[in-house]
Write a structure and sequence with these properties.
The protein is of the alpha/beta class. The chain has helices at residues 2-16, 36-44, 85-88, 102-109, 125-138, 153-162, 181-187, 201-209, 222-231, and strands spanning 20-24, 49-56, 62-64, 115-119, 146-150, 167-172, 191-194, 213-214, 235-238.
Length: 245
């Protein structure tokens, strides 16, 4: 009887730790990243969360795009932050897509899954906050639908100053992921999002012991996915959500 009780408890604990599948820039392994088509593909693949990147245009709009410059993905040139919304709409993204506004992405998802908004550009925190507040007041979105992340920790500090409740994740790239612990504590973050190649069992344990979830990026290959599962991470960013079982 004692054995049965222990077995049941152990199974229950494992069930509670479900790996979150986070569609990276939508499902960019299938459609051009950060487009409505990529967002739609991620929804079709039934991800647990979608991640996108945002910049602020010279004319003030918040748009969904990853790069500082538009050359890699469009038929245009120059810094995206120098564009007006009118000029940006003239660009064609690879695959015959358009660069969407953050509001267009929010409207398309319609609060069906949570959204991780990465503050890519400078000066994005305040405007993103305004948009989130509007969507929480007027649409189906709630605070639980949003996770704000950034490699630009100053933008995260601004977000925390103006919004003391929204969930924040600390992005860290080249350094040891443990170097994000101090800022994570300062901002009351919920997660640390490291490069998966920088993550090992010891680091993962220390992050968990500090009270933070772990969402590594960008985990695409089957062996890497298995390794992250073995480390007990809470979720992974992937271009191919269907590869995670």
């Amino acid at each position: 009887m004692l054995f049965l009780i222990v077995l049941t408890t152990s199974t229950s604990c494992m069930d509670q730790h479900k790996l979150k599948v986070i569609g990276h820039r939508g499902a960019m392994g299938h459609e051009t990243e950060n487009t409505i088509a990529s967002i739609q593909k991620a929804l079709e693949l039934k991800v647990d969360m979608i991640e996108i990147d945002v910049f602020k245009l010279a004319s003030g709009e918040i748009v969904v795009f990853h790069d500082d410059t538009v050359e890699r993905l469009t038929n245009g040139t120059g810094n995206i932050e120098d564009y007006s919304w009118l000029a940006l709409q003239k660009l064609v993204v690879t695959g015959n897509h358009k660069i969407p506004l953050l509001t267009e992405v929010l409207d398309h998802i319609d609060a069906t899954v949570p959204l991780n908004i990465e503050l890519k550009g400078a000066g994005t925190a305040k405007d993103v906050h305004v948009i989130l507040e509007k969507y929480m007041e007027e649409k189906n979105w709630t605070l639980d639908h949003f996770l704000i992340s950034s490699f630009n920790w100053e933008e995260l500090k601004i977000m925390r100053q103006i919004n003391d409740k929204v969930a924040i994740a600390i992005l860290i790239e080249e350094a040891n992921p443990l170097e994000a612990l101090a800022i994570a504590n300062e901002l009351g973050a919920v997660a640390i999002n490291p490069d998966y190649e920088k993550l090992d069992a010891e680091i993962a344990q220390k992050i968990r012991e500090a009270g933070f979830k772990i969402y590594p990026w960008t985990v695409n290959e089957p062996q890497a996915i298995l390794k992250m599962k073995a480390l007990g991470v809470d979720g992974i960013f992937t271009n191919y959500p269907e590869r995670v079982e």
